[in-house]
Structure formats: C-alpha cells, structure tokens
Amino acid sequence: FPSHDKGKVFRVGIDGGVFFVEDSRNADAMGSGCLSALTAMDMGADAITAVKMAAKRDVNTGGKIRHYKVK
User: Fold this and answer.
1) DSSP per position, 7-51
2) In whole angstroms, what is the distance from residue 69 CA to residue 71 CA?
3) Which of 12, 16, 57, 59 lies 20 to 30 Å (CA to CA) from residue 1?
4) Which residues of 58-69 are buried (b: 16+ CB within 10 A; e: fewer)?
5) What is the C-alpha to C-alpha distance for residues 66 and 58, in angstroms, rounded to an integer?
6) Share of the chain above pLDDT 90, in %
7) Can you tell me the distance from the alpha carbon of 60 to that of 45, in angstroms, rounded to the nearest whole number?
8) What is the residue-level pLDDT of the chain in tens, covering all 71 positions?
C-alpha cells in the first residue's frame, strides 16, 4: 500500500478470480451471514450482537465469536 494510506483499514480479497483492495470506511462483514450481520449493524447493533443475530438466520454462522479492535 502507498505510504499515504497509513492508518486506514482495507478489505483485501479475491472475487471471481479478480484481486481487489477496498478502503473500509463503513461497517463490514464477510461470510455466509454477512447480509444479516450488515443489516443488524445498519439498525444499530454492534458487531458482536450483529454476528449473534446473523447466527439465528444462517446455519453456517456460529461458533466462538472473536473480535479485534483496530486502532
């Protein structure tokens, strides 16, 4: 990443064989329950609560929830 991007959070991945880098300015979620989690966060839930809510609707979401604070 260029030096002027220090301190920013990026989402990096591969979609359809295409490598991408996105500036993550808003709440983000990945995985099978991501749409439910994003909707929960749009409605005011914090990230942990959003994952718990997504797990109620998506059978592939669950297990131990780990969270990390990015400073």
Assistant:
1) T--EEEEEETTEEEEEE--S----STTHHHHHHHHHTT--HHHHH
2) 6
3) 16
4) beebeeeeeeee
5) 18
6) 38
7) 20
8) 455 566 666 666 676 666 666 666 677 788 899 899 999 999 999 999 999 999 999 999 988 888 877 66
- Give the relative orientation of helices 47-57 and 34-42 as an angle to the nearest 10 degrees: 130
| Amino acid at position 58, single letter | D
- List the one residue out of 12, 60, 35, 10 whose CA is nearest residue 43: 35
- As a whole number of angstroms, the distance between CA 63 and CA 50 comes to 14
Q: Which residues does 48 contact at the CB level (< 8 Å), separation at least 6?
A: 65, 67
